[in-house]
Amino acid sequence: MTFEDFSDMEKIEAQYFDATDVMPARESFEIYLKDPRHIVVAWRGGRVVGFVLALSLKKQSFDAVKGGMLDETKIRASDLDLGETAYQFVYLSSIAIDRSYRAEEILMELWAKFRARMREIAPHIREVVTEPVTDEGRKIATKILKMKPYEKNPKMYFCIGSPKFFGV
What is the pLDDT of residues 17-29, one digit of tens each? Predict the structure, then answer.
């Protein structure tokens, strides 16, 4: 993947989210260079049309995100856990599909790729957290991933252990 792909991803997120909720392409690309496993992508015509980002965070950074003290746009490569404990604490950062491709089965393609990736790299997930900002995101969190609102920060949804949907 190239920096231009991440610029396209930033534009896709901007279709749904306020600019303050979108991780800048430069930061996302730097994270990708450190850990390319955190992203799955759907391509059409040689361009990114959808993606899922799941970041392996250090416990301290994970707790800060979960508690609302660390915003997604402020996550840096230094917040990642890429060592022996990688992917124990997962922040499901983004699920986004270009609006012009929503009629296609992009979501199911992304989920299949994402589940395969999680089975591959995350057999020991201890906790997953996400912060859905759209109705669709909340449906995915509650209905597909069976996540629950976090009582200390109701904007966040979490689950202890691996969501059954991941199959890990």
Answer: 888 878 889 988 9
Residue 38, classified by CB atoms within 10 Å of its CB into exposed (0-12), middle (13-18) or buried (19+), is: buried
Give the global pTM: 0.84
What architecture does CATH give domain 3-166? Answer: 3-Layer(aba) Sandwich (3.40)
Alpha-carbon gap, residue 115 to 112, rounded angstroms: 5
The tokens of 164 are what?
Answer: 């059954």
Distance in angstroms (rounded) separating the CA atoms of residues 133 and 128 = 16
With bands split at pLDDT 50, 70 and 90, how would you rate the model's confidence at 68? confident
Nearest residue to 154 (alpha-carbon basis) of 121, 132, 125: 132
Instruction: Tell me the C-alpha distance between 58 and 72, whole Å.
Output: 14
**pLDDT tens per residue, range 54-64:** 899 999 999 99
Q: What whole-number distance in Å separates Cα of residue 154 and Cα of residue 124?
A: 26
The distance of Cα 24 from the centroid of its chain, to the nearest Å, equals 14
Question: DSSP assignment of 27-52, as one string?
Answer: HHHHHHHH-GGGEEEEEETTEEEEEE
Alpha helices in 19-158 (DSSP H): 25-34, 59-66, 106-121, 135-139
| pLDDT higher than threshold 80 for residue 121 | no
